[in-house]
Structures are given as structure tokens and as C-alpha cells.
Design a protein that fits this description.
192 residues, alpha/beta, Double Stranded RNA Binding Domain, two-stranded antiparallel ribbon
């Protein structure tokens, strides 16, 4: 191999590693550390209160439920009737507008040396350019609720771009995000 080939391979591997590191979904979880997750086998979807102010999007609901059902099944959990379950599953899909902190500024300054003792004088000012920018943040939250007590025992969530230009890409984004979230469920025992 010559030096040019090695250089091209290095550059290629560098860009692949950057691309892969940027595509990882950052998942957070919270759970009841005293709960025995090993007893969980069967689940059902939590029935939503009809008086709930949450407006459900039928397209998103179908995508999330299908992805969750497929992932939990792949992990060995069985979807069952409401009477025979160990836990309920619920989700929240939240879209919110977030203001960006950085605003572009332009600055201007004048300086000169005054007198023979080399003292310095200056004048400066800055002007913010453009409007305060903002962007949409999409969050997917998956909750696991104990069927006997009704207590939340596990929550996994990720902020990720889910809605896309086509339904196929949107569906793929939901599947990928649900899989990433549920890979953390059930939580592993920490070694002391």
C-alpha cells in the first residue's frame, strides 16, 4: 500500500466514525431502584382516561404502539389481556419549540495611541443581527407502570427528530427510537 491509499483509508474511517457517533440516540432512563423487574412477563397498554387533555395523533399512536409491541416481544415479554398483566405501558410524544441561545452579533471598534506615553483609547459597540432563532424538539417518553399498584416503575425517553419528509422515514425514525429506549428496559442491576 502506498501513502495515498493509507491517507484515503484514514480519511474514510474518520468520516465514518464521525457519522456513526452523530447518529447515536441519547436515551435517558429513570426507575424505581427497589423494584424487582425480573418478575415482569406480561403487559398491556394502559387505558387512557377519556377526560385527559392530551390529544392523541392516530398516526403517531399506531407507529409507537407497533414499535413498542414488536420490541417488547423481541425482548421476551408477552402482550396479554388487562386481567393477566404484570405491567402497563404508556407513551408520551411531545413537540415543543425551544429558543436558541446564540444570536449573531456584529461589532465595531476604534482604537488609537494617544500622546507620547503610549496610552490607548478605544470606542466599541455591538449590534444583534436577526431574530431570536428557535427550533422544534421532539421527545418520546415510554412509561412502564406496575399493574398491581399503579405506580410508575420505569421511564425511558429520548429527544430525537422523529417526523420526517416521508411517512416511511418517519416510521423508521420511530422504530429506531423505540428500540433505543427499550434497550434500557428492564434496567440492569448495578454491581456494587
Amino acid at each position: 500500500m502506498n501513502i495515498t491509499t493509507i491517507s484515503y483509508n484514514f480519511i474514510f474511517l474518520f468520516f465514518i466514525s464521525v457519522f456513526i457517533s452523530c447518529s447515536v440516540i441519547d436515551v435517558k432512563q429513570d426507575y424505581d431502584v427497589k423494584y424487582d423487574f425480573s418478575k415482569l412477563k406480561n403487559y398491556s397498554w394502559q387505558v387512557m382516561d377519556e377526560k385527559s387533555p392530551v390529544v392523541r395523533n392516530a398516526l403517531v399512536e399506531d407507529r409507537v404502539r407497533t414499535a413498542v409491541d414488536n420490541q417488547l416481544s423481541a425482548q421476551g415479554f408477552k402482550k396479554d389481556g388487562i386481567d393477566k398483566v404484570d405491567f402497563f405501558v404508556n407513551y408520551h410524544y411531545i413537540v415543543r419549540e425551544v429558543s436558541d441561545k446564540d444570536v449573531m452579533n456584529a461589532g465595531f471598534g476604534i482604537g488609537s495611541t494617544l500622546g507620547s506615553d503610549s496610552t490607548f483609547g478605544s470606542l466599541g459597540f455591538g449590534i444583534p443581527l436577526g431574530d431570536r432563532a428557535s427550533h422544534m424538539v421532539e421527545s418520546l417518553v415510554i412509561d412502564v407502570i406496575d399493574a398491581n399498584s399503579g405506580k410508575l416503575i420505569w421511564r425511558g425517553f429520548a429527544n430525537e427528530k422523529l417526523l420526517n419528509s416521508t411517512p416511511e422515514k418517519t416510521n423508521a425514525n420511530f422504530i429506531k427510537t423505540v428500540q433505543a429506549i427499550l434497550q434500557k428496559f428492564p434496567p440492569s442491576k448495578k454491581k456494587k
